[in-house]
Amino acid sequence: MDTLIELNLYGRDYEQELRPLIRAFLPHGEFEVNHYEAEEEEMRSLCREEPTVLLAANPAYDYTFSCILMNDWFRIRVYKKGERIGAADAEDVDPERKAFRNRVAREIYRVLSADTGSELPWGILTGVRPTKLVYEALEAGEEPAAIEARLREEYLVSEEKIATSFTVAERERAILTEMDYRSGYSVYIGIPFCPTTCHYCSFTSYPLERFGKLTDDYLDALTKEIIYLGGCMPGKKLQTVYIGGGTPTALSAEQLERLLRTAREYLPMQDCIEFTVEAGRPDSITERKLQVLKEQGVTRISINPQSMQQRTLDLIGRRHTVQQIVDAMHLARKVGHDNINMDIIIGLTGECPDDVRSTLAQIAELNPDSLTVHTLARKRAARLTTQKEDYEGLEAQGVTEMLAESIRFCREHDYRPYYLYRQKNMAENLENVGYARLGREGIYNILIMEEKQTILAAGAGAMSKFVFYDEDRIERVENVKSLTDYIGRIDEMIERKKAFFEANPMNA
Prior knowledge:
Distance between the termini: 57 Å
Shape: globular
CATH class of the largest domain: Alpha Beta
Number of helices: 18
Helix content: 25-40%
Number of domains: 3
Number of strands: 18
CATH superfamily of the largest domain: tm_1862 like domain
């Protein structure tokens, strides 16, 4: 049953920070958020008497959070079913936005931790890139002990996650320093077609059964954009190319070859150190497609089972068999692919730690070069959320134990963590981690997660991200998500980038 939550914010707006923190403790929460403009003196006056109506309980909700957040002071009250379970008043708070936000978040964390009897492994860190804080602090020459203390005291991060953050950040630094990422850029090419749409997925993807007739028109538009991207940055080296989706191998072998030939012909690939294609769904893989990938110079592929449990695959809409996963891996090795990643998801519907142990044991037999361990995130637009009544009573059990099993497995099989990111509404507030054997890391994954390099993006729903090192700023230029809009408005997508480059020269 959903938990009804009211969040009242007077003055400073911290909804984007507080909502995910509250949801991490109350994962089935349904929010009503109210914003109120508030003048400093009026708030001072109203707060002189306790209780004030502004900070009162609302018994219609399971939880009420009422927060008066002024320039350098705040008043917070938290109620559960009409009874107060927490309060915090503070004066002379550092008014800088991040410092103020962290102080407020710590107070709410402590109330909810006491109420639920649980702690969050990442503390009050709710962003996508928790290791970025460590990476940038190390880059700035800060002492590791000082960084550790800040993570522990300011962000309430657990000792285990502090250690993980340092391991990942140090590996990322070693890889990126070696490649001189500032001298280069990367290209992402999106293929938004899939055999079917998985029930946990909310990416831009279109099932072939309904949209397959548009694949050639899409490739026509995509070719125009790739040709344009090939001449965008003559003063920089193209270092990585990543073709993702969707499922790029949902294309026919002929279409896939056309796409790869286009990329190789029009993109300046002579300095490219990594060329990745997501093979993704094993039911989209054939020997001929794997040969095309190899012939066209692809250096890294990903074959993604998500689970090696057939009942799970059926339940989440994967529509392929465990045997197809095994066959796809053997075919890829036969063709000569020597850098293969596999993805799994922990916390999938109906699974328990024994299922994950079984999945990992089967993956050990396939011996991929890298393994990415995702934690299920409940996406608003995914079927698991929009039709959640169909999955009632099938929630995964013991997700933290599943993660511990994956860590143990990777350590025993010489897979080392090299990138990490988080998403909203992740099971048990955990994380996604990429593990790889030395020399088999996915460099593009590090670049995009740490936002260290400009990435030009082509395709429906693709977002180009421009990094300006000297100005410490990042700008974004988005393509439309709709497949038909992208095809019909491709000239406009190119013009958006042209206009950006005219206003923001990148080649100096």
